[in-house]
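Predicting holo structure, fe (ii) ion bound.
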Amino acid sequence: MAPINGTVLIADDEDQIRNLCVSFLQRFGYETISARNGVEALELASDRVPDIVLIDVMMPRMTGLEVCRELKARHSTQHLPVVLMTGMDQPEDVVNGLQSGADDYVCKPLRLPELHLRLSNLIRRKQMFDMLHDHNEEMIETLGSQSRTLTELFTLSLQMNKSQHLDELLSVLTNSLSRMMDCRRVSVLMFNRSIRRWNIVASLGIPQDVATQISLSEDSPILRDMSAGGQPAIIDPTNAMAVELYGANGAMAFSELPVMLVPLSFSNELLGVITLTDRTWAEPGHFAPTDITVLTYVAQVAGIAIKNRLRQEQIRETQDVTIFALARLAESRDELTGNHLRRVQTYCRRLAESLRLSGHHQKALVPEFISELWRAAPMHDIGKVGISDNILLKPGRLTPEERKEMEQHTVIGGQTLEAAESLLHHDSFLSMAKDICYFHHEKWDGSGYPFGYSGEEIPLSARITACADVYDALTSARPYKPAFSHERAVGIIAEGRGTHFDPTICDVFLTLADEFNKIRLELQDNDVNAQAVETTFAQ
Ligand SMILES: [Fe+2]
Ligand SMILES: [Fe+2]
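Done. Tokens:
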């Protein structure tokens, strides 16, 4: 059978011309459809779109020009080439035909070889057009999906960089990867220095009790390959290397499906490994080259974000320890109670958390405030470094002059931190620490020092610290007093409700009294000297 060059719709009311065209074009390898008038031509063109239309101008019911205009107006046939057949004595038909959108014309009587050439040229042009059109559609589709992927990547990158903590960052990462890669199970393994093993630190779709049991040794061949290659890799259950990953617990976590492993690196340091498995639509374990490209990019961006977060957390930890050590150094001259600062910061945190839970100061008591309070509270007495030994270490009662000087520790501490804060060009917890130093001896009724502030004039952080500090001072032995019992201390604080202490904070303290007692016992001083002094004064 001769190859089909294309399908031609022939429309002519004269049987002789129509039949001539049909037999001629079929001989040249065209498939033909024929219509006897314009209306029939339009119906046939809608039923089965041909490659070209050859149509007589003068026809009953609907002229060739009208058919042409209608075909060019319809979306499905607007690019269908139309060739008009017209008599030599009707030149105005040619102009009208071309104006109506026709692509070409042939004159009657027909010169059949010319007709063949004109039709084949137009069909080739249409095939080219169709090819470009399809290609264009594919490009639009590809660009659309690439643009969606880029938007996802951009959003992921922003969210990871905005995350305050590593846990939050990893949760953003696992959720995004699950959505982008259509994987039901995603996890991130990171190295735990204390046990020297790689554990799952964030996961999605893996039961928590199973995830916590997954653990890879430091010299795991899988991780060695990840470190060396730095490329995503599929670990198949049949692969010998997978034994460690697919151990008893691995099988539960990954369901014996192939797992895509993606290294999370920064420079040449392997920070973690992403595992992806259980795809919702593709063959298990099948990842297209574009998926690998996207995963590699995500891993690079995530590697930088994780490294930054780890560095920030290390800096923060170092700052915390340094601040705590300095605060402790400042206290070391007079305090024999080694855990005083630990207890005070723990009491402060519990008071702040409970205040928030009981519906008080919810706007102020955001997690950042509570974590800053935890860091700042130990600094409340750093100003004592400026108080002379004969006053600070005096075992008996202070004279009024000595008391005045002693009270200056609030101002010395506050001014020191104010000066330090002014050297920074950003908000810092030093501002809260400064408030705590200045105001932790103010009282709710205005009878405190150094400024005699009252009520909410006293910053919330200082009001909380005052309650925590007094409870600890009362329950600890000091050179001038024995340690009071927990019950007695609670009674004294209750008596100070609305005079010494903020009544709301005092109420929350009373609900937490048992918990404070537990914290006190857990963090009690094991310093032999402190205990000896405490015993002496308690007698
Ligand atoms: Fe103080
Ligand atoms: Fe204190």
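The first strand starts at residue 6 and ends at 11.
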